[in-house]
TrEMBL record:
Residues 36-114 form the Cyclic nucleotide-binding domain. InterPro entries: cNMP-bd_dom, cNMP-bd_dom_sf, RmlC-like_jellyroll. This is Crp/Fnr family transcriptional regulator. PROSITE patterns: CNMP_BINDING_3 (PS50042). Gene3D superfamilies: Jelly Rolls. Pfam families: cNMP_binding (PF00027). It comes from Hymenobacter cellulosilyticus.
Amino acid sequence: MIEPFRNYLTSKAAFTAAELEQMEAGATVKKLKRRDFLLRQGDVCRDMAFVVSGSLRLYRTDEQAQEHILRFAIENWWITDAESFRTGLPAKGAIDALEDTQVLLWSRETFERLKREVPAFNALESQLAGRNLDAQINRLYTSISHSAEERYEEFITAFPDFYQRIPLHMIASYLGVSRETLSRIRKQAGLH
């Protein structure tokens, strides 16, 4: 379970053996079955999660009980409700498993301590936070400036691994289109 995380870290930065052990020692292993919650809307998000295997989604539910998917995460991706994790306030979103999933979890206190004590991890986390912000800005721009067809094409180009594993109705939610619209787009593209 720890080996994929170790491989991920060493592919991103130079960590000493002691630093790797320190980071691994702070992790808790959690296994989720499909549809199990890692975080329920309204609970405080207390953990940062690294996906070892499986897939998760972060989503919010509106007043009409419609789900709006904000993010997916598969192997070697991090996921949390960032606002709740940072502030300690109740989560506006929920995180659940789309398939059987294994994650490593770090409490906020442990995660912050590791950033202070392991310079390479702090640099990696800063880099990932910057890339995440860039991705969010690009997604916002795409959602307000591109057609549904263009958003779909960009999604399957950017996330081919997601496209094969995520149910189409969830991709539609992520793209901000109806299932019917996504079906029409797929039919026009010859992707029945």
